[in-house]
Amino acid sequence: MAWVQILQHLERPVLQPVSLRPVTCPRAPRSPHPRRKKRREHQNAGCRPLLAIMDKFGGAASGPTALFRNTKAAGAAIGGVKNMLLEWCRAMTRKYEHVDIQNFSSSWSSGMAFCALIHKFFPDAFDYAELDPTKRRHNFTLAFSTAEKLADCAQLLDVDDMVRLAVPDSKCVYTYIQELYRSLVQKGLVKTKKK
Fold first, then answer.
1. Which domains does the chain have, with CATH numbers?
2. Where do the coiled-coil regions begin and end (predicted)?
3. Cβ distance 192 to 5 under 8 Å?
């Protein structure tokens, strides 16, 4: 399962911390006049972080090769991880009634998909067959509180917001599912391939 390896990368930081030490701008002429010096320092303050980054990586053209050369490639990689996580959700909830996960927005609007995903890993926590898709508030509350209690998954979504919106925000749902997946991995309930 190659997609599991990609999901593991969600837990790792992508960027390395950069030390932003003060750097003087080389194009500004030195002036003995105090007023000009203050004005020049004020003007150069905005370019210091950029110059420090360029200094850190050896200049604009000679630094390390970027992970993605364009934003389309970056978007494709992120979209690939997103699609794999969506496919994982489908696989985990395939046999559950009232659940058909097609996206990270409308597919989660009744709360049944959240409940099914939690029930898959904690089947003794509640009786899924007793749930009603029309009782959205109850479904969201049950899913989020059970995930928080049993999986140590932070309750990133607010029940009131989920009930208020007819179609949940896809970025919010995606972020919550990422956190749930990470929590399940930490609990040892989702197996991932080791490198």
1. 21-64 (no CATH), 71-186 (1.10.418.10)
2. none
3. yes
